[in-house]
Amino acid sequence: MKHYLGPTVGQVPLSTWVEIVAAAEGGLLEETQWVELKKQLRPSDRAGNLELARDLASLSFEGGVLVIGVEDKTYDVVGCDVDGYRERISQVAAMTVHPPLSPVIYPTIHHPHDAGKGLLVVEVPPSEHAPHMVDGSYWGRSSDGKRKLGDAEVRLRMEARTG
For the whole model, what pTM was predicted? Predict the structure, then answer.
């Protein structure tokens, strides 16, 4: 499966460990307007779930990919224990993001040498209802990651959506 990683990168396969390592080593997998990287998710508490919700909401603006198991600063593909992540992501997207999202969560990509680690690729399609709100704020993305949207940006997007 190929994923859109932005206009300068295009469609890149991210279905196997080898493909993700090749994308990272080739400089194609870095945090951008269309890509969010996480070494692992924060604990499943209020703060951790809000951060996940903000990531998902921000990616819904133009669509994007969340890759869990990749260092966001060094782009090292390390994997992590992804048990429970699929359910958590679905629940956070449905209950913490407003209006709710339905991200596509692909099957776990298992580490080739460590059965306890894996990667998770989550695709957030562009939403016709964007921007989405999390905890009282709307979220979008800039060239280096998620950011809170200002009132003027939200108004413009809402006007464009209704017009």
Answer: 0.94
